Amino acid sequence: MKSITKLGAVSALSLIIGASAAFAENIKIAFIDPLSGPFASTGTNGLHQFEFAADYMVNEKGGLLDGQKMEIVAFDNKISPKESLIQLQVAIDQGIRYIAQGNSSGVANALTEAIDKHNKRNPDTRVLFLNYAAVDPALTNDKCNFWHFRFDANADIKMDALTDVIAKDESIKKVYLIGQDYSFGKAVAAAANDMLGKKRPDIEIVGDELHPIGKVKDFTPYARKIVSSGADAVITGNWGADMLGLGKAIIDNGFTGPIYTYYAAGSGITGAFGESGKGKIRLISQGGINPIATEEARATYEAFKVKYPEGNIDQSRIFNVIGMLAEAITEAGTATDVVAVASKLENMEYESMWGGKVFMRPQDHQLIQDMNVGVHTNENIDFDYDNSGFGVFTESTVKMASMDIPTTCEMKRP
Description:
Elements: H1 2-22, E1 27-33, H2 40-57, E2 70-76, H3 81-93, E3 98-101, H4 105-121, E4 128-131, E5 148-150, H5 155-168, E6 174-180, H6 183-199, E7 204-211, H7 220-228, E8 233-236, H8 240-252, E9 259-261, H9 269-273, E10 281-285, H10 295-307, H11 317-332, H12 338-345, E11 349-351, E12 357-361, E13 366-368, E14 371-377, E15 391-398
Parallel strand pairs: 1-2, 1-3, 3-4, 4-5, 6-7, 6-8, 8-9, 9-10
Antiparallel strand pairs: 10-14, 11-12, 12-13, 14-15
Helix pairs in contact: 2-11, 3-4, 5-6, 7-8, 11-12
C-alpha cells in the first residue's frame, strides 16, 4: 500500500510539472518597427525573419528552459520616435521584457534613452533592447547603456571596411556623399570624410549633402548633381524606399561608377534594380549568403523560402539575435531576470551559421563580426533576392572588423 501511495504521488507530481511546462508563458519579444508607410516592406520582411528564426531555431527544437516558446509580438511604430515610445510602453505593460528594433537610429536613440530611464525607475519590470540594425555609432559610445545590445556593425565599422576597399581602387579620384538627414546619415558622412581623408587624402569629396528622410518623391535633381560633379563613386547610407529611389535615379541619369551602400538589397530593392544595378551597386554587410557560408545556413534559407516564397533573408544578423538570446537565457536559467540574461550576453562568443565567430564586446555591447563587401549581380548566386535572379556576391571580407576600434562608452552596470 505504501509503494502504491508513493507511485501515486510521483505520478501526480509528474502531471503537475508537465502541466506547468505546457502552460509556461511564452518568452515574448516586442518587434517595434515600421509595418505601414514608405518603409513597410523593410519592416515586414524583418518581422518575418524574426518570426521564422524564433520558430526554426527555438520553438521547433522544444523551446527554452521548461519548454517555453519564443513569441514575436509586432508593434507598428510608423518610423516615428514618438509612436515608438508609445508602443514601448504598451509592450512593457503587456509584460514583455525584450524589445527588438532596427529601422532608424532616430528611433533607436529615443528607445534606448527611454529604456534606460524605465529600468532605473522600475527594477521589477526591466527590459533589454536588442538593436538589430540601427547603426548610429553614438549608441555604443556616448549614449551607451547596459540594457542596449547592438547586433549590427555600427556605421563607423562599416565605413572602415568600405573605405579599405575604396582606397585600393586607384581609379577613384572623386567621391560624392549623400544620405538621409538624421543621426545615421550624418554619421555616415562624417565617417566617410574622416576615413577617406586618412586612407586616400588624394580623393576629392565633390559632394556632401543630406535629404529629408522618407519624403523625397523624385531623386532626379540629386542624381543630376552627382553626375555633373564628375564623381567616380557614390557613398550612401540610404535604406528602404530612399535607397531605391536614389539608386534608380543615379543609374537612370547615366552614372556608371560604383555606388557603395549599406542597405541596397532585399525588400524589393534588388528586384527593382535588376539588370540596371549589375556591377554598379555594392553593399557592405555581414553574413555569407553568396557563396553560402555553411550547410546549416543553406538548410535554413531553404526552409525560410518554403514558408515565405516571396521573402528574403537579407538581415542574417536577426538569426544571431535569436540564437544568442536563446543561449543567454539558457545559461542564465531564466528569461525574466534580464540582468542575468544581459550578463550572459555580454562577452559572448557565438558561432554564427552565416560564417565565423561573432563576439559581443562587453565594454560597449557592440557585436564584432566579419564584414563583407559584395556586388549586385546574377552570377554565382546561391540565393537571390526578391525571386529576381539577382543577389549580392561577396567580393572581399574583413575578418572581425574593427575589433579594436575605440569606444567612448562608460558602461554602468546595475
